[in-house]
């Protein structure tokens, strides 16, 4: 029985680690959102948008490359035009 319990513990811990390496957990004023990471990393696993401007958020390469702009637009926190202006001001595109 202890072997089964240990195996189950390792499986659960492995699943948690896989989740943390695979997703950004984005906390907004309205909700908690999941954003798939493009590479396995612990960088920006938990990120809060509270008190941050859209420009500050989009300036973070890892989040921008993983599609946080699309997520913010989908949630109604940013418009297409605002994203284009921000990306232009950051010299990205």
Account of the 3D structure:
The chain has 93 residues and is of the alpha+beta class. It has one domain. Helix content is 53%, strand content 14%. It has five helices and three strands. It has helices at 2-22, 54-58, 61-66, 68-74, 80-89, and strands spanning 23-27, 32-36, 46-48. Strands 2-1-3 form a three-stranded mixed beta sheet. It is elongated, with a radius of gyration of 17 Å.
Series of secondary-structure elements, N-terminal to C-terminal: HEEEHHHH
Structural class of the helices, strands and pairings? alpha+beta
> So how many helices?
5
- Gross morphology is elongated
The neighbouring-strand order within the major sheet is 2-1-3
Note the gap between the termini: 57 Å
**Sheet with most strands:** 3 strands, mixed
Give short descriptive properties of this protein.
single chain; 93 residues; alpha+beta; three-stranded mixed β-sheet
Q: Which helices and strands appear, and what pairs or packs with what?
A:
Blueprint: H1 2-22, E1 23-27, E2 32-36, E3 46-48, H2 54-58, H3 61-66, H4 68-74, H5 80-89
Parallel strand pairs: 1-3
Antiparallel strand pairs: 1-2
């Amino acid at each position: 029985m202890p072997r089964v319990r240990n195996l189950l513990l390792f499986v659960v811990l492995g699943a948690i680690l896989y989740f943390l390496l695979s997703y950004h957990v984005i906390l907004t004023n309205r909700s908690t959102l999941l954003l798939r990471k493009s590479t396995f990393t612990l960088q920006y696993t938990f990120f809060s948008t509270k008190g941050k401007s859209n420009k500050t958020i989009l300036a973070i390469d890892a989040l921008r490359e993983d599609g946080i702009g699309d997520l913010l637009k989908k949630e109604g926190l940013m418009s297409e035009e605002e994203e284009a202006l921000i990306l232009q001001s950051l010299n990205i595109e």
